[in-house]
Amino acid sequence: MSDRIGVGLLGYAFMGKAHSRALHELLRLDPPLVPELVSIAGRDAKQVEAARARYGWAEAVTDWREQVADDRIALFDNGGPNAMHAEPTIAAARAGKHVLCEKPLGRDAAEAHAIWTAAEEAGVVHMCGFNYRFVPAVRLARELLEAGELGELFHFRARYLQSWGIDADPSWRFEKEAAGSGALGDLGAHIVDLARYLVGEPVAVTSVVRTFVDGHEVDDAFAATVEFENGVIGTLEASRLARGRINQNTFEINGSRGSVSFDVERLNELQVADETSFRRVLVTEPEHPFMSFWWPPGHIVGWGDTFTHELHHLLTAIAGDSNVAPHGATFEDGYRCAEICDAILRAGESGRRVAISYRERG
Amino acid sequence: MSDRIGVGLLGYAFMGKAHSRALHELLRLDPPLVPELVSIAGRDAKQVEAARARYGWAEAVTDWREQVADDRIALFDNGGPNAMHAEPTIAAARAGKHVLCEKPLGRDAAEAHAIWTAAEEAGVVHMCGFNYRFVPAVRLARELLEAGELGELFHFRARYLQSWGIDADPSWRFEKEAAGSGALGDLGAHIVDLARYLVGEPVAVTSVVRTFVDGHEVDDAFAATVEFENGVIGTLEASRLARGRINQNTFEINGSRGSVSFDVERLNELQVADETSFRRVLVTEPEHPFMSFWWPPGHIVGWGDTFTHELHHLLTAIAGDSNVAPHGATFEDGYRCAEICDAILRAGESGRRVAISYRERG
Amino acid sequence: MSDRIGVGLLGYAFMGKAHSRALHELLRLDPPLVPELVSIAGRDAKQVEAARARYGWAEAVTDWREQVADDRIALFDNGGPNAMHAEPTIAAARAGKHVLCEKPLGRDAAEAHAIWTAAEEAGVVHMCGFNYRFVPAVRLARELLEAGELGELFHFRARYLQSWGIDADPSWRFEKEAAGSGALGDLGAHIVDLARYLVGEPVAVTSVVRTFVDGHEVDDAFAATVEFENGVIGTLEASRLARGRINQNTFEINGSRGSVSFDVERLNELQVADETSFRRVLVTEPEHPFMSFWWPPGHIVGWGDTFTHELHHLLTAIAGDSNVAPHGATFEDGYRCAEICDAILRAGESGRRVAISYRERG
Amino acid sequence: MSDRIGVGLLGYAFMGKAHSRALHELLRLDPPLVPELVSIAGRDAKQVEAARARYGWAEAVTDWREQVADDRIALFDNGGPNAMHAEPTIAAARAGKHVLCEKPLGRDAAEAHAIWTAAEEAGVVHMCGFNYRFVPAVRLARELLEAGELGELFHFRARYLQSWGIDADPSWRFEKEAAGSGALGDLGAHIVDLARYLVGEPVAVTSVVRTFVDGHEVDDAFAATVEFENGVIGTLEASRLARGRINQNTFEINGSRGSVSFDVERLNELQVADETSFRRVLVTEPEHPFMSFWWPPGHIVGWGDTFTHELHHLLTAIAGDSNVAPHGATFEDGYRCAEICDAILRAGESGRRVAISYRERG
Q: What is the nearest CA distance from C282 to chain D, expressed in angstroms?
């Protein structure tokens, strides 16, 4: 019988729903710690109560400070909007709670650095919610890379394209203060994290960053070149203005002995090339990552299930004797991602290649 | 606040897991009736207790008769092996419980007919677990067909191909007594049901049915032609011996004004042709079937989620004042499917076109 | 320096154009015999003269008998409509000319048998124009099969779908006397030939054959099951009424160790599965069939180029000391294909499995 | 009856073969001027004679100056290696011959500018051999863009990936003096030209350019961002080191009302998105570009056929009363492409955004 861990969740929108669902799902997956859904927090009392009832939380609170002060809560899960990442996460960490914070960790590198530093100083387990690390096909790509199957690496190219920005109603997502950046922080951060997870540390970028739509304060799109410490070169792009692309989060890695290619729209497939051609691997075999949780081969998992994998991994780390969840993005990863995103913005403004330097933790 | 409904589940293997997960998931999806997981039944006391704990059931029982006798249970969910479909389902219906039974309903048409008749006589809501009706892309295909978007229909072709049968260990799935049939009842039944759901009533088949692997008592594969009441012609195929095909459950319908094509391996996509070309529709938009339960566009659902849709539909029917769940396969659908599968077997044996006649309920 | 061979071509429409182009193309491909384009024949004097000028023939004639009597002609190439296959081809063979005849060889098996017998008795080289045998990807599939790469074979399924028949103007192609059959002889004959070329001899079929469009005398579509001598089972389908399918001539073969899949719409690709997954082979490498004629890897060939391969093969056979072109369909292959097509028609009419028996040559 | 035009071809390797084939093919396609194949030039007497015989040229010469001096030749077609582009092309133009020169026009912008200037001063028709403008699917994309079907344009991204460079033997293609650049001039030039043909004039680039393989003097790969005069932003990439990519020349354009996407490996397909989804257009319908030359729908054309389209277009321009072939790349286009490629090199070296300025002709 596993020990229990009390969880407090901040946020009841998109991420609140995704995290709640995953926590419940875990109950059926023999988790290393059994999550107890103590409370959900949100500013609007009526809405947070509705969310509580719907998503199966014991209590609803309108101030996250109540969660920080709540001794029953050992894991603070921050699924709030970007502007609500720093203060509550730092406070929770300082109160000794393990912390999961959605991406982007901060609205810029400085904010992310502060969050990371606080969590490290508090000695808690911390994870930034880059859920695409927990896609079975992405994990399989990582395993192939770790095993050296692709040989010496030459190229990484990724793009994250959506189309809803063309006709979108006004939203905090288009405001500088609330969102920090636009396509860059929302979509670009995901592919920057995958770049680091799969290939290594970026050392320089050039870019063009653009706001096309009247009234938007943040970028609608960017395009960048990227150089990695290990010599790999490539491109990064994100846009909210790509008709026909609904959620095309795609990458390709080319090495001397093979390549891999992936697209979130076909979440359960990994294209794997050897020295001659690409094969389509349906990542649903028993030996494939995370598949022990699920179904027989060929029965695909959904996007929402990546959060189940992510939270399982986090609870494994918490149950262990380390404060590192090796496959999860730590807050250091969240900070480094922010550093790269900032560099992309600066490169776009200056027209120069921006060398990326990562700060030590404060 | 919705009323509650007590559920008893028979079976703790593949389907037991899928149904349990969906019942829990429903709790977060504002169900018309709130499922209460009363008991799970299985013959092996140790295993059923493990399943109980893992899948979140209140009690474990080793005899389904306890569930039939249990007044707390209003819905009997039969996810057991094929040979355990008839007796428990009939008993539960006669005890006044609504019944969900996995496919194939019976091991042959006669058995399926008996189950259907019993449920009808009992006046309970009955549904046969053809979960592919609850794939968003399949439902969208149905909507397009109902709206006449494809014009006069000409062709239906479907195949369900897997490959695990080549190297498989011995299993009840290869035994005549336990399974009834092989690829036909296991895979073929799904495409037969989709044929009926999407196109209409088959009236004749020809076929070739084959056992390739030594030691298998049931068919490894079949290929059939099919004619429908409305003049449509086409093919049906299933095999457990198709290398490279992991779970390719695919169909295509051609009409005078357009076509649709689908493959379970790309569960969230529907290929839709007008008079010139096919477009790839990612069936994840807010207006698409079942998407109100889920995520923003482009964030795909998984195979397991189809059971959530299915059970939501069943509970809606039970909560209503009819004993029909219009999109769910009723036991009559389960029976008719069995009648067609039997006709495919007979056509294979006789080498003749077999006209399909459906019996009235007994 | 190669010897020359005089060629006479009957027909100046679709096939006349394709064959003429291929004969000219051969001049640049170091052919074993250099084709000399002696004359082109057609009934309409004005049109045949225009075709002569356009397609580069020395003379135009309005009666194919002139070609049969022309000593300069050693190869009679029959690209005329179906009803013009038998008499001219037989006459040419009896005049000692090598003969190439477009498919279907005859309008039925009896006619095809007569053509085959005449050619054999004359001792000339004969080839039936099943050009898909000369697609590089199809030849590669054959090579893989010959090498045993797919293990024991289980399934063959093919379909040939077009959509132009829905809105088509009246044409000889819809008339019984002129065409013999519809989708069956026009499209089905191609996949029947590929079935024989790749898998082996069919021994039985069941089918449904249907005319949907008012005014058509021949079949618009058929669907059939097929059994082969070596135990393989599968399906064959063709239709002129499949919206969105422009020229989908596709097959798949499943064996115990692997599978192959092909579609004419992606002419240069062969999908090849081993025991786990499909890889996409772009059949343009130097070691791939026919690629010595063409370009560096990745530079695809067109449909028209298959005739170049076909005619090169025929001239190689003529230049050799045998009257067999091993990869080309002989007239015996043309006859056997017709026998199978007739069996499909009879099976459709009778509703029975029709065992296929092939006649010896007369 | 069309007038004749004498042609002299320099080069007998890859491009010599492709151009020869196209010139012969044209004879069957009712060309506005009938090409007469006067002479082929190459340095090696034996090889050029073999090429003459194989490719159907009347004479072979070992010095292109003979062609420049030959009054029978009105079109000088330069298919030689990069280092042989400038001098012969300029001489031919000054001798009053129309000139077709393969890409890249010069080894750098200065050389390309000189060639352009000479041709303009001579008043001859000039075309640079960017054959991908003559792919039916690419022309269709251009037609959609001209018709405004995509609305306001936001993004262009293109990459041209091959893999042969990893294991390649030494070749002039890896030498600075002979080739000018590597993947950039060989592959990148094609996508730069398509960018200009489809979207408009680039005004700035940033880039990273890299030589990975020991012994190579030129770039193996580059990645760049690009900004266009009309505000469009995007990426350009080329590599000879991308395993599994054989000849992936692919682009995508996103606009406010739709998108198009293309890949040379599927030469006959254009993916066209409206505001919701992508459709796969098989560009083989009678109304599609160049299809009047070819076959019924669904019968694809090959890569080699693009040269036939290109030369037909050039001859149409020569037969007309203008010195412009509107869809062909002129030498000005060849020069501008070189200017952009040079800018990519400089941006890679400097780490700065390089503004592109085009010189007037000298």
A: 8
- Backbone Cα Rg of chain D: 20
Q: Phi and psi of D15, rounded to 5°?
A: -75, -35
- B104: cis peptide before it, omega within 30°? yes
3-state secondary structure of C265: helix
Quick check: B353 pLDDT over 60? yes
Residues of chain D with pLDDT under 50: none
Q: Which residues in chain A touch residue D222, judged by CB atoms under 8 angstroms apart?
A: 233
Q: Within 13 Å of residue D192, how many CA atoms lie on the same side as its CB? A: 33
Longest CA pairwise span in chain D (Å): 59
**Contact, C193 vs C167, CB < 8 A?**
no
Measuring CA to CA, how many Å separate A136 from each of A31, A278, C14?
18, 18, 51
Residues 6+ apart with CB under 8 A from C55: C12, C16, C17, C20, C21, C37, C40, D28
The pLDDT tens digits for A148-159 are 999 999 999 999
Residues of B in contact with A302 (CB under 8 A): 299-305
Nearest CB neighbour to B244, from listed C231, C277, C353: C277
pTM, full prediction: 0.97
Question: What SS3 class is residue C176?
Answer: helix
CB D351 within 8 A of CB A353: yes
State how far the Cα of A247 lies from the Cα of B202, in Å rounded to an integer: 39
Locus of tokens 């006391």: B45
Compare CB distances from D154 to A206, A241, A277 and report the shortest one's residue.
A241
Verify whether the Cβ–Cβ distance C244 to B259 is below 8 Å.
Answer: yes
Answer left, alpha or beta for residue B98, where phi above 0 means left and psi between -120 and 50 means alpha: beta
What is the complex's ipTM, to 2 decimals?
0.96
* pLDDT (tens digit per residue) in C335-356: 999 999 999 999 999 999 999 9
Structure tokens at C298: 């990745």
Please count the residues of chain A. 362
Long-range Cβ pairs for the range B27-30 (8 Å, 24+): B27/A24, B27/A56, B28/A17, B28/A20, B28/A21, B28/A24, B28/A54, B28/A55, B28/A56, B29/B293, B29/B308, B29/B312, B30/A54, B30/B2
| Residue C283: both structure tokens together | 């059949």
Interface test with B, best of D272, D279, D287 (most B CBs within 10 A): D279
Residue numbers of A between 146 and 185 with CB closer than 8 Å to D:
150, 154-155, 157, 159, 161, 163, 166
**Sign of the dihedral through C-alpha B213, B218, B220, B226:** positive
D319 vs D5: CA distance, rounded Å: 9
pLDDT digits (tens, 9 = 90+) for B81-137: 999 999 999 999 999 999 999 999 999 999 999 999 999 999 999 999 999 999 999
The CA distance from A62 to A72, in Å, is 17
Chains touching A by CB (3 or more pairs below 8 Å) = B, C, D
Q: How many CB atoms within 10 Å of residue D299? A: 22
| Beta-bridge mates of residue D279 | B279, D272
Determine the 3-state secondary structure of C4 from DSSP: strand
Residue C326 CB neighbour total at 10 angstroms: 9
Cα separation values, A178 from A15, A221, A266, B43, D165, Å = 16, 18, 31, 57, 47
Q: Which residue has the tokens 């796969």?
A: D280
Question: Which D residues 248-307 touch C at CB under 8 Å?
Answer: 248, 264-268, 282, 284, 294-305
Q: With an 8 Å Cβ cutoff, is A358 touching chain C?
A: no
- Exposure pattern of B210-247 as b/e (b: 16+ CB <10 Å)? bebbeebebbbbbbbbbbbeeebbbbbbbbbbbbbbbb
DSSP B121-180: HHT--EEE--GGGGSHHHHHHHHHHHTTTT-SEEEEEEEEE--GGGSPPP-GGG-HHHHS
